[in-house]
Each structure stands twice: as structure tokens, then as C-alpha cells.
Amino acid sequence: MKKIIRLELLKLKNSRIFLVITLAPVFMVFQGVANFLRYYDIFTSRGQNMWYQIYLQSSVFYVSALFPALIALIMVSLARIEYVSGGLRYYLTLPVKRSYVYAAKLLVGCMLSLLNVLVFSLSLLVAGKVIGAPGEIPYDIILTRLLLAYIASLPVMIVTFLLSINFSQMGIPLGIGIGLATPSLLVANTRYWVFYPWTYPIMAALGGELFKNTYFPFVAGPLIFVILTFAGMRWFKEKDVLD
């Protein structure tokens, strides 16, 4: 299993995916800080916490748009490698358990998604220090909330992963993944957000009145992930290599 994971990472070595998942969150933080500094007087006029304002300005579009889009890009990249030149057919004829191949690809996708979140968190910490945000660093917000958002985004990861390995045309899963993320910010502001998993990371990272005193995303998210993971694994094990 470890060898397969290393192989999956090695396949991505010459791709630009690592560059994208590390630079994109840095750019998002840069945009958030720039917006904060532009409207500094408004964001601090009532003594608001600078750290929280930086976090808020950077996180709104990160968790609602950029992160889901990057998840889709990561999963599509993992699948695209195999579909190019019929590589998937060859891969599935090798003397290796299909369940291991499936699990390794999914695990690598989840690991790269986590790397993206960690880079975003680190960028927030650096940005706060650079602009001289006063007070103690609110790790409970910058680290804990974003890690909870990662857990809440597990359904997004598995759905996008299953779409990616099911379609040889990579534009389809990428388009669906981005399309499903588009209305998430609007849905998150309604009571129906519980029925739309793309809102879970938003609610976990940003909270709000509709999110108070509920652990629903942290229960439903992993549960959906587990169910779809095993359902997808069963399908993958029975997949015709000539499809």
C-alpha cells in the first residue's frame, strides 16, 4: 500500500498540481489582507480583532470557492494520469489489488487537500505577523476552524473523486465539482444548508447563527464519506478495464 502511495505521488512529480495547491491559498490570503488594509478603518472602527478580520476576509471565498475548486482539480489530476494513453487499463491488469489502487489514490487526494489547508493556515499566520496584528494568535480560529472545515469537506472530496475516476473526459468532473460549489455561499445562508454538503466547510470555517450548537457537518460529513468510499470501492473492483 505504501509503495502504491509513493507511486501516486511520483506520478504527480512533473505536474503543476503541487505549485497550484501551494500558491493558490497564498494568493487568497494576499487578496484578503489587501482588502482588509484597504478598508482598515471600517474593519477596526469598533475595536474588532484584527486577526479575526484577516481570517474572515481571506476565508470567505477560500472555503466557498477556491478550496472546493482545488479539491476538484486534485482529484481530476490523479485520475487524468491514468486515462492518458489508456494507462488505467494497464494499471488495472497489474498484479495489485484494485482496492489498494482505489484507496491510495483517494488517500493521496485527501493528503494534498490537507496540505492546501495547512498552507492557507500558515499564510494567515505569516500575514498577521507581517502587518503587525496585535494580541495573541487565535489558533482556535486559524488552525482549529480550518481543520474542522477540512473534515466537513470530506463529502466534497469523495464525490469529486468518484466523478473523476468515472469519466475519462476530465472537463466533466471538474465542471461538475466547480458548478456544485458555486451556489454554496448562498445556500449556506438558508436553513437548507444541511442538505447541501458543499456548505459544510463554509459553516465549519465561518459559523453563523444557523450553525450554532450543531455538530451535524462533523457527523454527516465523515458518514457520507465512508458510505460513498466503500460503494465506490466496490464499483471500482468490478470495473471493466475496457470501459
TrEMBL record:
<feature type="transmembrane region" description="Helical">
    <location>
        <begin position="174"/>
        <end position="195"/>
    </location>
</feature>
<feature type="transmembrane region" description="Helical">
    <location>
        <begin position="147"/>
        <end position="167"/>
    </location>
</feature>
<keyword id="KW-0812">Transmembrane</keyword>
<dbReference type="Pfam" id="PF12730">
    <property type="entry name" value="ABC2_membrane_4"/>
</dbReference>
<feature type="transmembrane region" description="Helical">
    <location>
        <begin position="60"/>
        <end position="79"/>
    </location>
</feature>
<keyword id="KW-0472">Membrane</keyword>
<feature type="transmembrane region" description="Helical">
    <location>
        <begin position="20"/>
        <end position="40"/>
    </location>
</feature>
<feature type="transmembrane region" description="Helical">
    <location>
        <begin position="215"/>
        <end position="236"/>
    </location>
</feature>
<keyword id="KW-1133">Transmembrane helix</keyword>
<protein>
    <recommendedName>
        <fullName>ABC transporter permease</fullName>
    </recommendedName>
</protein>
<feature type="transmembrane region" description="Helical">
    <location>
        <begin position="100"/>
        <end position="127"/>
    </location>
</feature>
